[in-house]
Amino acid sequence: MAMSPYPSYIETDIEWFQKIPEHWSLMRLKWTNDDIKNGVWGGEKNGIDDLVCIRVADFDRSKLLVDDSRLTLRSIEEKERAGRLLKRGDLLLEKSGGGEMQLVGAVIQFDKDYDAVTSNFIARLSVARDFFSRYLTYLHAYLYSINLTYRSIKQSTGIQNLDSGFYFNEVIAIPSLQEQTKIASFLDFKTAQLDCLIEKKKVLIEKLNEQRIAVITQAVTKGLKPDVLMKNSEIEWLGEVPEHWNVLKLRFLGECQNGINIGAEYFGRGYPFVSYGDVYNNRQLPREVKGLVESSENDRKLFSVNTGDILFTRTSETIEEIAMASVCMKSIEDSAFAGFLIRFRPHQDGLIKEFSEYYFQNALLRAFFVKEMNLVTRASLSQELLKNLPVLLPPQNEQKAIADYLGGVVKKIDGMVTLNQQTIEKLEEYRTALITAAVTGKIDVRNAEIPDQDTA
Asked: Which PANTHER family does the protein's record reference (predicted)?
């Protein structure tokens, strides 16, 4: 669907609307709202005056709608509901939150019919007459994509707070209500097509990840020879294993050590620091880590990270993120590792690093940790529990053969995952570019053929 530009344009002094269709109007963003109302967090749900409370975590930033798959109920008294109950078509503005990697100020549309309020980190925007809610959603998405909200942030470290008064004083260009409706319908249609393609790619990636785990699990628990003699491991979740393999608890294969635990003032300078993020979802530790810590000579001996070491995540809010393992393939000189990690250092005659990289990714280990983990408010892995982990130990030459085989197979799977991730990135970039072109008037979609849409 090739789109042409408008017949004629005028130039403006607005950096983000430098040239607009001549019949569009310039105005302050605030004129698109009838009312702005901050949200409320209320109290713990009590079964009496419970109400859905939309959080920033419920923002679907791709579809620019509410994701109601994990809604939160809070006790909201009647007086706190006044002026805060959402109605279909309201816009929700993230006014607090963000972080180092994500700017505050995202806007989505509330397209639901159930009663709800927003959390205190979100403001409800009631759309003014002569403006179309869905169009404004896309307009805000464009402004967010060019980081316009950055100018309105009061605090740029820690929790970001958006000065909504400053933000809504920004100047925008906008077409008539009829044209807003047409542009929004066009974008709904086109972005739905893109989202469908993206979702298919995500499903494929999920299947590839499952295939990777299945291949790894089969190889590191059953070996590579289908006709090998098997024995009962006497461990329910391991089942039968090759007869000539040893089954030993981790405690007999090496030593465990918790990480360094010092104050925040020691971080950001000094010597290399291996963090939780370096371990999480990485089969191998990065060869060079970005973190720094002012560690002593004794710290760097006690909390060193050497070739063959295996680091496990020790704490998390969910069991699924506990005991994620990453192997050090080459010593990180003068380093120390985080207190949220446990280091396992294998004996020389046991696990080799190439086998460890795959063994501790196998799906059956999750069954062990899920069964044994005690979950209170945060899941926590103790050394004692980790030491009790049953480990299958093939001869070292067989460990190497398994690792070599998996290296080839997993590399191909990883390559397919990367290609699909790159495709998703390109589709997302195209979606952003399409929204930008439509709401800035670079393309004229007034005569575009669009299937009927049920748009709020």
From this structure: TYPE I RESTRICTION ENZYME ECOKI SPECIFICITY SUBUNIT (PTHR43140:SF1), TYPE-1 RESTRICTION ENZYME ECOKI SPECIFICITY PROTEIN (PTHR43140)
Burial class (CB in 10 A: 0-12, 13-18, 19+), 6: middle
The phi, psi pair for 191, rounded to 5°, reads -70, -30
- The answer as to whether 370 is a domain residue is yes
- Give 86-133 pLDDT, tens digit per residue: 999 999 999 998 766 689 999 999 999 999 999 999 999 999 999 999
Contact indicator for 335, 361 with CB cutoff of 8 Å: no
CA distance readout (Å), 139 to 145, 150, 347, 426, 441: 10, 16, 60, 21, 11
Same domain, 377 and 419: no
Structural domain ending residue among the three candidates 357, 373, 393:
393
Question: What's the number of domains the chain is made of?
Answer: 3
CA gap 456, 454 in Å, rounded: 7
The DSSP secondary structure of 341-372, one letter per residue, reads: EEEEEE-TTS--HHHHHHHTT-HHHHHHHHHH
Can you give the C-alpha Rg of the chain in angstroms? 27
323 and 439 fall within a common domain: no
Residues 230 and 359 in one domain: yes
The residue segments making up the domain with residue 434 are 176-223+399-456
pTM assigned to the model:
0.84
pLDDT digits (tens, 9 = 90+) for 65-95: 999 999 999 999 999 998 899 999 999 999 9
